[in-house]
Design a protein that fits this description.
FAR-17a/AIG1-like protein; transmembrane; transmembrane helix; single chain; membrane
């Protein structure tokens, strides 16, 4: 919500056009999109299979705000970031997009180790699994986050709608040059 509010304020100040947005705001959107994509993937590939035996699929997907948190917001954020918004994503930006996941994993794992919180996900229950399994989960989730950041970058690069717009703009410019 905070990211969306900041984004909207900057859009209104700059005019709605996304090509004029500051780089730091693009990074925040990239981080948010990557975190939401990770949420979607973890829910679909980890939490639903783990929760199926306990009948938790409805709780994870459609009850309360979960439909938005786990399905709609990740999809809308991905589509918006990759199709609508302008700006280049560099290889360095991939690490920036992965940073919140690393920070979240370190903090929540530490809080589980010192018993301030329990979970909230099965893979964070450090006392219910061997140490090496907690390390594997940590590495796996960070790698998935990094992979998703790569995928998001690639989709942004090959986006048909942006490329079509740029090609159309180039054709107009060439026609204007030819008539002069």
């Amino acid at each position: 919500m905070i990211v969306s509010a900041i984004y909207l304020i900057v859009c209104f100040v700059n005019g709605i056009y996304t090509e004029n947005l500051p780089k730091w705001l693009r990074w925040i959107r990239y981080m948010a999109t990557n975190c939401l994509a990770l949420t979607f993937i973890i829910v679909i590939t980890v939490l639903i299979p783990m929760g199926a035996k306990d009948g938790l699929i409805d709780d994870l997907l459609i009850r309360g705000p979960q439909l938005f948190h786990h399905i709609l917001c990740p999809i809308i954020s991905f589509l918006s970031f990759c199709i609508v918004e302008e700006g280049n994503i560099t290889k360095r930006d991939i690490w920036i997009a992965t940073f919140p996941t690393i920070l979240y994993a370190i903090i929540l794992t530490f809080l589980n180790v010192i018993k301030v919180v329990e979970g909230p996900y099965p893979f964070l229950l450090v006392y219910d699994q061997p140490f090496y399994l907690s390390v594997i989960w940590f590495i796996l989730i960070v790698c998935i986050s990094f992979g998703l950041a790569l995928v998001i970058r690639r989709v942004c690069q090959i986006n048909f709608f942006k490329n079509r717009k740029n090609t159309h703009d180039d054709n107009i410019n060439l026609e204007e040059i030819n008539t002069q």
